[in-house]
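## tool: complex_structure
## caller: assistant
## args:
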Amino acid sequence: MSRVIEVPSHFDDRSFDAFAEGFGEWPPEEKLLIDARGTQWASPYGLIGLLTAGQALAEAKRDKPLFTVPTSEDVKRYWARAGFFQQAAEFFELHGKVPRAAATGPSDVLLDVTPVRASEDVHGVVDKISEGASRILHGELGLEMKATLRFSMALSEACQNIVEHAGTSGWVAVQAYTFRRRLGRRVVVIAVSDAGVGFRRSLESTHAKRFGERWGDGAALEAALIQGVSRFRDPGRGQGLAFIKRFLDQWEGKISIRSGTARLAIVPPWDEDVPLTDRLSYFPGAQVQIIIPAQQPVR
Amino acid sequence: MIQTIRIGHLLREAVAAPYRNLVTRPTGAAVRTRIEETLARSNCLTAMLDFSEIELVDLSCADEVVAKLLLAGGHAYFFVLQGLREDHHEAIDHVLTHHRLAVAAVPPGSREPLLLGWVPSDARAAFACICERGPLGAPDLAGTLGWLESRSREALRELSRHRLVRLVGELYHPVPTA
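## result:
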């Protein structure tokens, strides 16, 4: 028996739940085929979500899933340029011709799909992002120069959550693109995902009691993002997400975190997302997306 | 006596790589350990932490390096920060405010320190007054700011508790920065 999981045609945070639903009970017993042939576009959130699924299946000692690559040459090239196939080869049996990533000049990919396994990787990510971030955030999005450094801080804190809390490794990717339908502006998107224990299990031993029967994935996300709690007793912990929220508030940005069966978002005025969604299909670990929009609409 | 500690140098030692970004908790903890080792060998009164070679300070490192040094307490030293850029201020101010701590920082090109973090507003006003006028006692401060002496004494006690002024006899001195 095998199970086919179709990658949505337009694969981003909105269509992610349909993708997660495809797995059924976690971890699925059947051999999996992840079918991306019809995929026309994937956000960085979508790309590292795919890798997270592959990683979680490997860690659950399931068979290596088959993965059929997109049919569209443009889509394949973009995924290759973003470093997706290079990482995916470890977790999937790839079917279909995969282009080699072309070394190009400045690109909308600010940070390739990059594994985050330890603190040294966070140093590497922050070092690598600094030049491109300034070009995009200041040059294209019209944010103040100091936004570049705040952006790097936000990226650093988001990646450290993997190292500090997930109990396994994860992924990060950063891209700039145009949110035509939702916003009509250029945006920079940071996506961070891991296949780890998730917010609920990370916080359970220290915070579940306080929530009583309300405790679950949604309450854990609320505790971390809204109340700034951490699993560590150290009173200095839990400030990273608070800072990211403050930074995003200033730039009308958005953060959303999906963990387990819930998703919590701080929703800016330009978006129609709901703050808390629960009873979603389970997906391992945690997936964070941070969106920073341009200050002016696209002409 | 002032001991200047170059954070950029300690960072390179701690991570054994030419990084200029002070990020992640393990890195921050390693840098803090090196600061403490340096101070243990020193007989200085003021430790000047120089951030001028640092590109980025994230919140985790601001917490591990600056907040935890101040929280450790029992230090005989006055800590002063220098070479900070605006975004460094922001990270350090954020974590110190969270802990209700404060530190003096000397802006580039200036000798007059400013306060990062949290102290009550009276203590902040007293700090600015002492930095501008030099050593003051509680009655002098009360006279200058038009306060009751009890209010001035409380503000100075608060500054002294945060090791932001140095009490010599009856006078509260600004922390030495040069």
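## assistant note: The interface with chain B takes residues 119-120, 122-123, 126-127, 130, 146, 149-150, 152-153, 156-157, 160, 163-164, 235-236, 239-240, 243 of chain A (CB under 8 Å). The first helix of chain A runs from residue 16 to 21. Handing back to user.
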